[in-house]
């Protein structure tokens, strides 16, 4: 059995809003960076998978942010993988300020796809020999919730451009989160309030596609659905606490 | 006289395009982060200026990128301030790969504004006592060139949203660069070719404004002008070498 691993970051000026605290999308981005860097250091990163024409793809994510770090302060993201089944591997995170206090947590579920046929691979055939990387510790919060279809009250269109896409040629996760956040009132975004985001990636969105982003406010939840013109591609629910 | 200071970074998965090399906008962003962090460590950062209701504002930037770091490789950004006059302070950068080879360089010119009246302050009244932070070394390349008005061949509209704005409530420099890059053919953006970007910030663009971005291809230069509806706000020239 392995141990949890921590990575230290600084809240950069480019990651804060005018409250001089890191934005939720910037924190989610660093959580995902941590996943990439930790997998790479442990020998199962996308650099290695790409050589076999495979890649990690994020399927679902839940992130809870109770407080947002102030500009120039340091914070730590601790990560561990605690389980996997045929389709999904579960990677967990806790976020801690310089005094060690936990101010956030996340649970992410990933699959590995074969880039030639763009289909998920049975993880047992890949991770089988890597069970010594699992950590015997529970997820720090409820796993990503299923998000159902919505009845949009507001709709925004967005054409996918170069700055939206990632190393897989898909729209970058942070850009999806930004597209959703950008539809909300700025007073809500800059409030210092605990928030939980559940996001579910169903289909890829690609360069040149025109996306529609629907938004519905229902029972204290901000619900979103991104469609790529053919099908619902991403659904998310944002809960302000 | 002071010495140059170096900061080490890693090329994160979130900063690369599908060539698995860092994008030019991501490199420009880290150069600007380095400016912020270095100023803060030396005691004249925005954290200190904000207490006096002042802030650093980038006026002009020239950045040359000969090569782009591969994902997960480390690189160093070395920075120094070598001169200032009444209006502008000049901060320089060189970018080096893990073997120490220089693969890029930048020259930036900054002013300090009074946030109450949004006007530039005479730097002599601020930096006067800080001349011991100047480094006796020339700028690593030609200073930012003046970019003249353009005759746009293509125009794009963009409404300024939360994810576009920075700690000054202005559109973030990286977002301007992304808006411009996103108008170019993707084959040009993903080619591994030396490039120089000159960018000139004339007026602020703010939350809720609708911007127009004009693009003209002329004599091997990609020329851009961002207007906030009232006036030309940003001009830039991109030279592929």
Automatic annotation (TrEMBL), chains A, B:
<keyword id="KW-0809">Transit peptide</keyword>
<keyword id="KW-0276">Fatty acid metabolism</keyword>
<keyword id="KW-0275">Fatty acid biosynthesis</keyword>
<dbReference type="InterPro" id="IPR045023">
    <property type="entry name" value="FATA/B"/>
</dbReference>
<dbReference type="InterPro" id="IPR029069">
    <property type="entry name" value="HotDog_dom_sf"/>
</dbReference>
<feature type="domain" description="Acyl-ACP thioesterase-like C-terminal">
    <location>
        <begin position="155"/>
        <end position="217"/>
    </location>
</feature>
<protein>
    <submittedName>
        <fullName>Acyl-ACP thioesterase</fullName>
    </submittedName>
</protein>
<keyword id="KW-0443">Lipid metabolism</keyword>
<dbReference type="InterPro" id="IPR049427">
    <property type="entry name" value="Acyl-ACP_TE_C"/>
</dbReference>
<keyword id="KW-0444">Lipid biosynthesis</keyword>
<dbReference type="InterPro" id="IPR002864">
    <property type="entry name" value="Acyl-ACP_thioesterase_NHD"/>
</dbReference>
<feature type="domain" description="Acyl-ACP thioesterase N-terminal hotdog">
    <location>
        <begin position="12"/>
        <end position="122"/>
    </location>
</feature>
<dbReference type="Pfam" id="PF20791">
    <property type="entry name" value="Acyl-ACP_TE_C"/>
</dbReference>
<dbReference type="GO" id="GO:0000036">
    <property type="term" value="F:acyl carrier activity"/>
</dbReference>
<comment type="similarity">
    <text>Belongs to the acyl-ACP thioesterase family.</text>
</comment>
<dbReference type="GO" id="GO:0016297">
    <property type="term" value="F:fatty acyl-[ACP] hydrolase activity"/>
</dbReference>
<dbReference type="Pfam" id="PF01643">
    <property type="entry name" value="Acyl-ACP_TE"/>
</dbReference>
<keyword id="KW-0378">Hydrolase</keyword>
């Amino acid at each position: 059995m392995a141990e949890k691993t921590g990575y230290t970051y600084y809240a950069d000026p480019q990651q804060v809003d005018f409250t001089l605290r890191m934005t939720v999308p910037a924190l989610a981005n660093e959580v995902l960076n941590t996943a990439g860097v930790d997998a790479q250091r442990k020998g199962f990163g996308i650099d290695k998978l790409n050589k076999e024409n495979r890649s990690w793809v994020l399927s679902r994510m839940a992130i809870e942010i109770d407080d947002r770090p102030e500009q120039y302060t340091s914070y730590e993201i601790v990560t561990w993988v605690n389980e996997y089944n045929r389709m999904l591997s579960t990677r967990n995170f806790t976020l801690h300020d310089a005094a060690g206090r936990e101010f956030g947590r996340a649970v992410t579920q990933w699959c590995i796809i074969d880039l030639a046929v763009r289909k998920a691979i049975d993880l047992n055939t890949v991770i089988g020999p890597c069970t010594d990387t699992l950590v015997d510790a529970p997820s720090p919060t409820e796993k990503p919730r299923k998000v159902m279809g919505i009845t949009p009250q507001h709709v925004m269109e967005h054409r996918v451009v170069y700055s939206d896409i990632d190393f897989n040629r898909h729209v970058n996760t942070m850009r999806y989160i930004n597209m959703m956040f950008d539809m909300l009132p700025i007073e809500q975004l800059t409030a210092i309030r605990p928030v939980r985001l559940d996001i579910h990636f169903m289909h890829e969105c690609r360069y040149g596609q025109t996306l529609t982003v629907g938004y519905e406010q229902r029972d204290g939840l901000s619900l979103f659905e991104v469609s790529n013109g053919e099908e619902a591609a991403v659904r998310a629910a944002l809960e302000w606490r």
